Amino acid sequence: xxxxxxxxxxxxxxxxxxxxxxxxxxxxxxxxxxxxxxxxxxxxxxxxxxxxxxxxxxxxxxxxxxxxxxxxxxxxxxxxxxxxxxxxxxxxxxxxxxxxxxxxxxxxxxxxxxxxxxxxxxxxxxxxxxxxxxxxxxxxxxxxxxxxxxxxxxxxxxxxxxxxxxxxxxxxxxxxxxxxxxxxxxxxxxxxxxxxxxxxxxxxxxxxxxxxxxxx
Length: 216
Description:
This is ER lumen protein-retaining receptor. It is found in: Endoplasmic reticulum membrane. Keywords: Endoplasmic reticulum, ER-Golgi transport, Membrane, Protein transport, Receptor, Transmembrane, Transmembrane helix, Transport. This protein is mostly helical and 216 residues long. Helices cover 70% and strands 0% of the residues. Helix 4 packs across helix 5 and helix 5 runs parallel beside helix 8. 31% of the residues are buried.
């Protein structure tokens, strides 16, 4: 069900993608952006949006899903194959072993889900994986410690989207009698906690009018 918190969360998520696309396209550089995180988000969206082919919810829902899929794969294509942009990729620094995220999330999805079917397990896997998909990006920013404004804004907006979704869940819990999504709630809270350290330094740099940097 749509409400102001979900709409704000969706628009914040969309804005984060737009900021990232603008950064890469305008500067012809993906420096400071983790390809590992973008590929993890691609896995998240593919697994979560399989129902595009089986279940029509609304035009809004379909359009948002297509936008997230197309934009994420566009970013990955630029970082891997664009003759100018790919040269700026911090390959030596972006070395987070994402297998340590994917495999535990997949096992957990097979053990803890609402229904043991292929679609449901993949959907649950996407929920768990999204909670930790930002970790390679945060590690890369800590290693390089050279965070431009657009990259900082992208990560901040991405974290804000999930925080707004927590408000959406609280609102739905209070207004919808049978709304219970415990696995989603726990994963969303974990995801927001992952961002807390970044939020602190982002707000601190903004208040002090300083360049954003994260402690090693």
